[in-house]
Amino acid sequence: MREKFIYALGSLGALALVANMYNIFLVLPDEANQGAIYRIIFFHVPAAIIAFTFFFVALICSVAFLAFKSSKADAVAVASTEVGVVFAIVNLVTGSIWGRNIWGIWWTWDYRITSMFVCVLLYLGYLIMRPAITDPTQRGTLSAVLSIFAFCDVPIVWFSIRWWRTQHPGPVLETGGLPHAMAMALLYNFIALLMIGTALVLVRLRSEHVQREIESLRRLALVEA
Amino acid sequence: MIEARNFMFLFYGLAAAWLIVIGYIFYLVRRDRKLSKELGRLRNLIGDGERTEK
């Protein structure tokens, strides 16, 4: 049942994405100043929002783990973090390619870009640290603390374009600077990518459960030996 | 010329995004297979141990 749900969710997301591609590439006009390259925004922005959504889920689950010592909460936290990091990397890479075309440079140590880079490094640290700790309770506790600490960077990334003058373009979503048709295409792509991301989290969650079963069987095998 | 350059970078951007996501899906599938194999091996090992004890 759960397998079918994962496949259905992933397929529905992929179909929605393909349908939206038609709109993005063949219906929407080029942007007046940037030309065709502006279409990267339809992947760059949803990837960032999806990453932050999953980091927020990880934050809630980390707090739940610290409060109730629930291993399920820890499993959801790690699955959400891993998929969140993938989307955050997509955001950084697409942004860098857009920057090379528009600014003429691959990278700049701008507040928005640097804080996003730090965010990816913090969550990568979380993922690298976990396998190094063998005791599940200790691993869950340290991971939860790191996840809560790492999430402190998310509001900094989000508000950096308001707080400081940055080379990164200013906010267009909340200010209504984006035409309605483009905003809708962005919303549809966000929904489609979120469905694919959620399917990936569910797959990762399943492998986390198998990993835990393996760990408990190993402990059992050691006790028997 | 500018248009062609624009499309080239758009292609690079989208290709990179999909490569990262597809690469991660392959990583998940490989990891899943490896874990399933390991789980089967451990179950057999513990099952054999229990049978030997009996």
Structural commentary:
The complex is a heterodimer of chains A (225) and B (54). Chain A has helices spanning 2-27, 41-68, 71-102, 111-129, 136-151, 153-163, 180-224. Chain A has 225 residues and is mainly alpha-helical. In chain A, helix 1 runs antiparallel to helix 7 (180-224), helix 2 runs antiparallel to helix 3 and helix 3 packs antiparallel against helix 4. Chain B is mainly α and 54 residues long. Chain B has 1 helix and no strands. At the A-B interface, helix 2, helix 3 and helix 7 of A face helix 1 of B.
Summarize the topology.
The complex is a heterodimer of chains A (225) and B (54).
Chain A: H1 2-27, H2 41-68, H3 71-102, H4 111-129, H5 136-151, H6 153-163, H7 180-224
Helix pairs in contact in A: 1-7, 2-3, 2-5, 2-7, 3-4, 3-5, 3-7, 4-5, 4-6
Chain B: H1 2-53
Would you report the number of β strands of chain A? Answer: 0
Termini distance of chain A?
37 Å
- From N to C, what is the helix and strand string of chain B? H
Proportion of strand residues of chain A: under 5%
What form of chain B results from the Cα inertia axes?
rod-shaped
Uncertain spans of chain A: none
- Order of SSEs of chain A, N→C? HHHHHHH
- Radius of gyration of chain A equals 20 Å
Residue share in β-strands of chain B? under 5%
Tell me the distance between the termini of chain B: 79 Å
Supply the key terms.
A: about 220 residues, mainly alpha, 7 helices, about 80% helix, B: mainly alpha, rod-shaped
